[in-house]
Amino acid sequence: MNKEEFNLLYHIFQHQTTKEDLQSVAFSSLTRDGLVSKQGITEQGLKALDQYKVDNAIILAAGYSSRFVPISYETPKGLLSVKGEILIERQIKQLKEAGIHNIIIVVGYLKEKFQYLQDKYQVLIIENKEYSSRNNHSSIYAVKEYLGNSYILCSDNLFTKNVFRSHVYQPYYAAKYAKGQTEEYCLTLDQDNKITDVSIGGNNSWYMFGHIFFSKDFSKKYLSFLEEEYNNPRIKQLYWEDIYIEHIESLDLYVQKYPSEIILEFDSLADLRLYDKDFLHRTGSKYMEHISNFLSCDEEDIVSILPIKEANHEVHFTFQVHGQMYEYFKDHILRIS
Asked: Residues 26, 39: contact at Cβ < 8 Å?
């Protein structure tokens, strides 16, 4: 069936048939094929939908979120409570509301922090033991046996409305539109919104942002490339998207376009403070509290926080208070300019 027919069949599956449905060309086609009747979807229609049914959702939560220091030293970004709701829990609830109950969380850094979700929401926790030495393709590899018709999510995205469906027509990457210059992964699309090229950086472009849906066919093809190259040192620091881009001619992936306000991501504490004003005054971080007490300032005065990468990810970052630069290292606060 074509996309219009699928969307109508899914709509009838979810709701009662309307007068507008009965008058549509797609309805006539579905009726002719025995998939719907005036009373609604038929048994044959339900079987036709089965190939599009979502098998599971995989939430990637293994990374360091180094740009979110010092909070991420103590709390994984996906476990932050934003406007009263924990980010990853909000995603889990939205998935379950959409009828997706098989949910897998890939953990690594501070993995123990996520264990409570197993009992609270009956999710499956899978550890990515290579999270510190490889990029996010290793999280896909860690759950390769579960990939099918699968949503792939980042644990720190906030969806202001529920974007998930129990059945999906084709594999896609969510996208937002950038006016002017951007350094994101920008997309070239054909007339059917299939991705034909990806470039890092662009101008007035749709770009990759948010969740992804792998169909069974896409999963099978992508994994064949990933497994073939996994032991090649050159891919260790590649995103899973980079591997997709290298094989784009063999991997059909479409775009699902969203308004900018539907999918949110907070790259830094400064971003989060713009959305949730509570983070201006209290972040819950003992490091922020230490700085506030030591310098007799409010937490909102602590700005321009940047990590300093060290072995073993020690607590080491710079920040500013009232225009003065400081360095935080091993519980010491040093004025550096």
From this structure: no
Any idea what DSSP says for residue 263? E
pLDDT band at residue 314, thresholds of 50, 70 and 90?
Answer: confident
What DSSP element (H or E) covers 286? helix 286-295
Are 50 and 149 in contact, with CB atoms under 8 Å apart?
no
CA 102/CA 100 separation, integer angstroms:
6
Tell me the three state secondary structure of residue 297.
coil
Structure tokens at 99: 């009828």
What is the model's pLDDT at position 310?
A: 59
Residue 197, helix vs strand vs coil: strand
Q: Which residues pair with 108 in a beta bridge?
A: 110
* pLDDT at 235 exceeding the cut of 80: yes
| pLDDT(145) > 60 | yes
First-last CA distance in the chain: 65
Tell me how far apart the 2 most distant CA atoms of the chain are, in Å.
76
Mean pLDDT of 178-192: 95
pTM of the model as a whole: 0.94
Q: What is the mean pLDDT of the chain?
A: 94
What sign for the dihedral angle of Cα 102, 95, 237, 266?
negative
**Type of residue numbered 178:** A
Tokens of 301: 């005065």
H-state helical runs in 81-173: 87-97, 116-121, 137-142
**Alpha-carbon Rg of the chain, whole angstroms?**
23
Q: Which of 3, 160, 127, 112 is nearest to 60 (CA)?
A: 127
Q: pLDDT tens across 54-107, in order?
A: 999 999 999 988 889 999 999 999 999 999 999 999 999 999 999 999 999 999
Neighbours of 142 (CB within 10 A): 22
Cβ-contact 100, 53 below 8 angstroms: no
Please give the backbone phi and psi of residue 248, each rounded to the nearest 5 degrees, phi first: -60, -30
Among the listed residues 238, 58, 13, the one whose alpha carbon sits nearest the alpha carbon of residue 148: 58
